[in-house]
Specification:
Belongs to the jacalin lectin family. The protein has no helices and 36 strands. It is mostly beta strands.
Length: 448
């Protein structure tokens, strides 16, 4: 199942190029290089889900980096402290020191130039009550210009990970948090001559719409409509500043971009810029700070993987839309198993017909139609491994609902499998197929 990750904003300068490692299961080693004035390079040894170790390295090695080794998997990094400052011949700030702390109470040496542990520059710290740091992002070129981290927060009941991007902007105002939804359908923005004063979001939640309002409406209001189901917000670019006639630092401009290449801009692009976005993800909620205007803004993004074709038997298929349930299943057989699948999904008050998967044979096809109030809770069946292939042929399928169990379609032979998630229902499917079905997997979402 998915997890929720918190992405903390960068600390440091604005030079160099941006990089983002994303999230991993943990870290084994950190290497840090330095010269007389700054951190010049950093290298991470990450551990992926199935134990594979990958290395990511940034900056320029000026001398042999020093290493800090963790006792993975029992030990993990819980805090990163450091400093950033301007140094000779460099126009922007760079990272000048780093210290790592772990779940076992260990602390790394102070990396970077220091005299008896004393460092110069603006200090920063990434930490949240002992939560595990599982990835880094930053900026670098000849040195490490800026650094940020990913923290793992909670396990989710949704199948895909969600990223909570830290709110950026001013420090004043009351904290608000809309949480997560299926997506955003409408954005309404209010502004005055200096700032963004008001935000109103119409979110999609299953078959319903929920509205959240923040700030003060003011006089000038504009609206941006998203063609939800076929379009989603991919990023939000913003600026923040402290207009001279106001006490607080506030959001001064917003630019929303969508998966269809559309954009809408509001306010006045004045002050420091930041971007809320996560590669391969759609925006599913906002959080921030508010008062007489919008002081700060952060967002939630949900990552949904897209099947990538590989040079093996069977083409990948995926009905990855955000649906509320399954209305009809069409299943066709051939002599050795399942040859055809097609699904009709429930979306709000309407129905969406999925693509054909596989091919109908002379044996024909049968339909399973779910009643009103009926939903899929699980599936089972048999499969038969294919020599030399990383997957199998589907021999048979049976579906379970909250009201009944269907017959077994196909052969009662091979290796049996069964899948079900407590408190969740099946709302979509993905798999592999050519003229027959090689694999089929359900997508679960919580029962509302």
């Amino acid at each position: 199942m998915g997890k929720m990750y918190q992405k903390l904003a960068l600390c440091g300068g604005e030079g160099g190029r941006e990089w983002d490692d994303g999230v991993y299961e943990g870290l084994k080693k950190v290497y840090v290089g330095q010269d007389l004035s700054r951190i010049t390079c950093i290298k991470f040894e990450y551990v992926k889900e199935y134990g594979e170790v990958v290395t990511r390295e940034y900056g320029t090695i000026t001398q042999d980096p020093r290493e800090f080794i963790l006792e993975y998997p029992d030990e993990y990094i819980t805090a990163v402290e450091g400093s950033y400052n301007k140094v000779a011949l460099i126009a922007t700030e760079v990272i000048t020191s780093l210290v790592f702390k772990t779940s076992m109470g260990r602390t790394s040496p102070t990396f970077g130039p220091n005299l008896f542990g004393v460092v110069n520059g603006t200090k920063f710290k990434f930490e949240d009550e002992g939560k595990k740091i599982v990835g880094f992002h930053g900026r670098s070129e000849n040195a490490i210009d800026a650094l940020g981290v990913y923290l793992v927060l909670d396990s989710l009941t949704t199948p895909f990970p969600i990223y909570k991007l830290e709110a950026q902007g001013g420090k004043e105002g009351s904290v608000w948090d809309d949480g997560t939804f299926d997506g955003v359908r409408t954005v309404r923005v209010g502004q005055d001559d200096n700032r963004i004063t008001y935000l109103e979001f119409e979110y999609v939640k299953g078959a319903t719409f929920e509205t959240r309002r923040h700030g003060v409406k003011g006089e000038t209001q504009s609206e941006f409509l998203v063609n939800f189901m076929n379009e989603h917000i991919t990023s939000v670019e913003a600026t923040y500043d402290n207009p001279k006639i106001f006490r607080n630092t506030v959001i001064t401009s917003l630019k929303f971009e969508t998966s269809k290449g559309r954009a809408a801009t509001f306010g006045y692009e004045v002050g420091k810029k930041f971007v809320l976005g996560q590669n391969g993800s759609r925006l599913v909620g906002f959080h921030g700070k508010e008062g007489e205007a919008i002081d700060a803004l952060g967002a939630y993004f949900e990552h949904i993987p897209i099947p990538i074709p590989t040079p093996v038997i069977g083409d990948p298929w995926g009905d990855y839309g955000i649906y509320d349930g399954v209305k009809k299943i069409t299943i066709g057989l051939y002599e050795e198993g399942v040859a055809f699948l097609k699904f009709v999904y429930i979306k709000g008050n309407g129905l969406v017909t999925g693509d054909d998967h596989g091919k109908i044979t002379s044996l024909g096809a049968e339909e399973i139609v779910l009643e009103d109030g009926e939903y899929l809770t699980g599936m089972e069946g048999y499969y038969r491994p294919i020599p030399g292939a990383p997957f199998s042929k589907v021999v048979s399928l049976k579906f379970r609902t909250n009201k009944r169990e269907t017959p077994l379609f196909g052969l009662d032979s091979g290796e049996k499998y069964s899948t079900e998630e407590k408190g969740q229902k099946i709302t979509a499917f993905h798999g592999r197929a050519t003229n027959v079905i090689y694999s089929v997997q359900p997508v679960f979402r919580p029962i509302s």
